[in-house]
Design the sequence.
């Protein structure tokens, strides 16, 4: 078993994947296995009983949005009666930020990878304030979702039909040179996204009011591009999955209760342990007492070599963890220690254009005791309150140790 | 309770700065809570939810809003007054240099590093050293408690890769002016040291400095290098390096007494190096004061003094007898027991075991020589019923003919002792035999001639006869031994790459931080690895990781 060669194969596949945002469609039309009573969620598999506040809130919101339940009580009743199925987004080629809840009617982005022929999906980003992804499900939240599904989604769909697809890898490469790291900071990327979409939107929207509304919504939200970026990372990571003998991590995800990883050469098994509470800065009126355990599929960015791993590119946000610009460099330098390659397309000016650390190797994580560094938003532990801060978290190291034991067993070491 | 606010129109700050300011305000005395946001509708609502939105406040999205809630109005005012200072406060510019946790990363950070200094616990040291060698780095391994098998394997691998493997248990080295581990500040100069003894090297190098001279390189080998099982692998390589190093003029070899076979191997190598080499094997009886280019010291200080004296001198001329083709051995045929013993000690020092009838290894039959052999023909087994060879040359002449006829023999060493009671004219009998042996077998003959100009045999006449017969005559055993052994020691030096010695030292330190500090203090480029036992010391995980590496 040549592990090095297997890992090189995996990481080459990851880097040569070409994520193209080609279209939007309702989840039930494009996501494999999507059915009306299925709710996809972030992270590894989890039962209702063990779901944290924000995830429960988002699930209830989705059932209300779908019209499957009339109110919270009805939604909970359906769930307890076993009428709702749950599955990780990751099991259906999808990813979603925070609660990551995707239901059948929701418009989703489709990312194609012409290099390897696989696809990935993500929902639309709702912006700030009271949003479903943080477990809010008030009428106001549902109204916004309806507008997104009824107006924003169709506009974006028609706009994309005017293009040959947007190259998200190229967009990310540029954003990394503009102070983004692609996970917590997507300011530049979102503006680039708006720049690419604006002429297309202008072409397809007849109603000036709608056009202004859509452009305003995309422009106000510095996370507009996060969801396509996550799906792009998913398509890259999936391209690297399933290489026999490889120890490269191909998914890291949290459901608000557990943190899970998958490994290229270890099939579809998850290795999980309780998720931690991020360290970071809090919005007015909140403290770490209010924080939910780590949640969301957005760690797919670190899996693909950006986010916390590209921290050297984003000195503006180091202060989230009381850091200095030097700490931003150190973070990236540290991640080189546990990865197998430097990215061919994602480079960082402050490190003399070295490629970002790409392809987490479970062997290195266990040997050196260095867990991946993740930049993340922090959710309130009660459903519906929303984001309370942002900061830094690391996965529990046990999950990498479990994966190593599983590897030894599978490959009879 | 008081809630005061400030609105700063058109003042944009990144949200991170705002959150930091908010945290700083909230931590001031008597402040209950604080809110710092840009005045967007969403943010104002957030303030409102947390009861931080003053009723009378007006703000636009591009305005900076600062709200402070405190026990007293005074405290709130004091807090607001500090906003500008808090906003402009800069973090300490002292940045923390990145400390890699793996050797691999350190090597990527400092690709010019030629050396890895290792001082991790012994059970992990061999693995780290192996990794360093595979990365193409020379190794200074301070750690002890590394097994002998591992040491042998590491040194063999280093040899294959043409790298230096100092240690395990190597306490000191000075490479191109930079001290590793425990090292004195010693002036640079022309004397190169190799040694298995850390304090020995420190003592000699310090003395050299105090005498006004200096060192080119100080190469530690590790305390067990001169044991039989390790066979002086690093000392040999160190000698080759110093022999090839143009900066090194004089070599000093320091050790506790090596195993005898290793001694011969090292002295041969030192001989082959050709540079004046001072040998200081503490507790080892020197076979001579000088043997060719080898100088034997009785103490560390004497070694330093000898070396300093040799700098700038001429290399000693030994002469080089030419052997007939196929000749591989020398034979000594002595009449004097003590001369025989002295010559034997000299031979054994550089040639390794020499068979004889006076010490180990013994000839099973003294009548039949074997490989390199030396005979004391004055021993009882030869003198039963016969006169002593100082009086009767018959036995020696017969044996001389016998040895000369052996095609594997290239050189024969004899002693001739004059004086009262001895044969009246030994050369008259020996010279024709020597002449005949040389004519028939093209054999080299070397003679140690002991006597005075007042002796009855006429010293000068004796010497002339022997020389005319083709013998090379010496008055001094050590000089005769040096001349006699020289054709039997291979002079083919392993040419060693020395370019790296002229480059500035750059090193990776794994283990004791003080070694890193010391490298930096000496002006060397260095990276410190923040090393921890693999897998946090978990042996089950370590075992799996090890299997995955193979």
Sequence:
């Amino acid at each position: 078993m040549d592990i090095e060669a297997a890992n090189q194969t995996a990481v080459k596949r990851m880097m040569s994947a070409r994520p193209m945002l080609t279209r939007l469609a309702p989840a039930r039309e494009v996501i494999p296995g999507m059915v009306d009573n299925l709710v996809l969620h972030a992270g590894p598999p989890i039962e209702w009983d063990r779901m944290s506040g924000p995830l429960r809130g988002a699930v209830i919101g989705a059932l209300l949005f779908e019209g499957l339940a009339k109110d919270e009580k009805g939604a909970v009743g359906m769930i307890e009666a076993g009428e709702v199925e749950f599955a990780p987004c990751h099991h259906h080629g999808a990813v979603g930020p925070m609660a990551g809840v995707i239901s059948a009617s929701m418009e989703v982005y489709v990312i194609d990878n012409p290099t390897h022929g696989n696809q990935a999906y993500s929902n639309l980003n709702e912006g700030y304030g009271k949003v479903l992804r943080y477990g809010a499900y008030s009428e106001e939240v549902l109204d916004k979702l309806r507008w997104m599904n009824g107006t924003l989604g169709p506009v974006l769909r028609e706009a994309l039909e005017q293009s040959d697809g947007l190259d998200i890898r190229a967009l990310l490469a540029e954003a990394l040179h503009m102070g983004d790291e692609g996970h917590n900071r997507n300011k530049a990327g979102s503006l680039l996204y708006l720049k690419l979409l604006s002429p297309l939107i202008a072409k397809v929207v007849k109603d000036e009011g709608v056009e202004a509304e859509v452009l305003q919504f995309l422009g106000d939200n510095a996370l507009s591009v996060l969801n396509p970026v996550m799906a792009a990372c998913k398509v890259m990571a999936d391209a690297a999955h399933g290489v026999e003998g490889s120890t490269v991590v191909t998914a890291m995800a949290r459901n608000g209760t557990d943190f899970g990883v998958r490994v290229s050469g270890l099939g579809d098994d998850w290795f999980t342990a309780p998720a931690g509470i991020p360290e970071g800065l809090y919005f007015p009126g909140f403290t770490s007492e209010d924080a939910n355990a780590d949640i969301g599929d957005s760690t797919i960015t670190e899996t693909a070599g950006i986010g916390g791993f590209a921290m050297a590119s984003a000195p503006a946000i180091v202060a989230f963890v009381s850091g200095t610009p030097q700490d931003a460099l150190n973070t990236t330098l540290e991640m080189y220690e546990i990865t197998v390659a430097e990215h061919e397309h994602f480079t960082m000016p402050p490190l003399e254009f070295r490629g970002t650390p790409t392809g987490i190797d479970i062997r290195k994580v266990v040997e050196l005791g260095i867990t991946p560094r993740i930049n993340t938003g922090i959710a309130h532990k009660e459903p519906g309150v929303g984001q309370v801060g942002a900061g830094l978290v690391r996965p529990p190291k046990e999950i990498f140790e479990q994966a190593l034991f599983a590897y030894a067993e599978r490959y009879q070491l | 309770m008081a809630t005061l606010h400030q609105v700063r129109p058109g003042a944009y700050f990144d949200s991170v700065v705002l959150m930091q300011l908010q945290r700083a305000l909230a931590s001031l005395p008597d402040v209950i809570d604080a809110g710092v946001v840009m005045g967007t509708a969403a943010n104002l609502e957030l303030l409102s939810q947390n009861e931080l939105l003053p009723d009378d406040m007006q703000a636009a999205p591009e305005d900076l809003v600062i709200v402070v809630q405190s026990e007293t109005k005074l405290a709130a005012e004091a807090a607001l007054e500090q906003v500008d200072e808090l906003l402009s406060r800069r973090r300490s510019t002292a940045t923390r240099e990145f400390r890699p946790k793996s050797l691999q990363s350190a090597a990527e950070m400092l690709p010019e590093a030629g050396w890895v200094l290792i001082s991790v616990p012994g059970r992990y040291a061999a693995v780290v050293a192996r990794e360093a060698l595979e990365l193409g780095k020379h190794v200074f391994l301070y750690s002890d408690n590394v097994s002998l098998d591992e040491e042998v394997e590491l040194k063999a691998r280093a040899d294959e890769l043409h790298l230096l493997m100092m240690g395990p248990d190597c306490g000191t080295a000075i490479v191109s002016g930079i001290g590793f581990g425990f090292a004195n500040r010693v002036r640079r100069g022309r004397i190169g040291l190799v040694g298995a003894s850390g304090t020995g090297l420190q003592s000699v190098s310090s003395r050299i400095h105090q005498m006004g001279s200096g060192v080119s390189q100080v190469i530690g080998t590790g305390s067990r290098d001169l044991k039989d099982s390790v066979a002086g692998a690093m000392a040999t390589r160190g000698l080759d390096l110093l022999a090839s190093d143009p900066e090194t003029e004089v070599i000093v070899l320091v050790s506790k007494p090596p195993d005898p076979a290793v001694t011969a191997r090292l002295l041969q190598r030192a001989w082959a190096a050709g540079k004046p080499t001072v040998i200081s094997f503490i507790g080892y009886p020197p076979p001579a004061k000088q043997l060719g280019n080898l100088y034997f010291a009785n103490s560390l200080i004497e070694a330093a003094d000898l070396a300093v004296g040799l700098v700038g001198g001429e290399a000693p001329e030994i002469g080089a007898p030419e052997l007939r083709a196929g000749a591989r051995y020398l034979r000594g045929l002595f009449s004097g027991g003590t001369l025989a013993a002295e010559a034997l000690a000299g031979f054994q020092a550089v040639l390794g075991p020499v068979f004889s009838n006076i010490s180990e290894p013994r000839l099973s039959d003294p009548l039949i020589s074997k490989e390199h052999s030396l005979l004391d023909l004055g021993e009882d087994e030869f003198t039963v019923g016969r006169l002593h060879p100082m009086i009767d040359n018959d036995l020696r002449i017969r044996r001389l003919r016998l040895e000369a006829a052996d095609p594997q023999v290239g050189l024969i060493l004899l002693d001739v002792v004059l004086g009262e009671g001895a044969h009246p004219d030994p050369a008259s009998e020996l010279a024709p035999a020597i002449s005949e042996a040389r004519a028939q077998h093209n054999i080299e003959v070397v003679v140690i001639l002991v006597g005075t100009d007042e002796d009855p045999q006429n010293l000068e006449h004796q010497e002339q006869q022997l020389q005319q017969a083709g013998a090379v005559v010496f008055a001094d055993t050590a000089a005769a031994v040096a001349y006699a052994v020289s054709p039997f020691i291979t002079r083919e030096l392993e040419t060693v790459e020395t370019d790296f010695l002229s480059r500035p030292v750059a090193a990776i330190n794994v283990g004791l931080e003080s070694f890193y500090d010391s490298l930096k203090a000496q002006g060397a480029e260095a990276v410190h690895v923040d090393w921890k036992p693999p897998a946090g010391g978990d042996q089950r995980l370590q075992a799996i990781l090890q299997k995955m590496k193979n």
User: Anything to note?
Assistant: The longest strand of chain B covers residues 409-417. The mean pLDDT of chain B is 92. Residues 426-441 of chain B form the longest helix (16 residues).
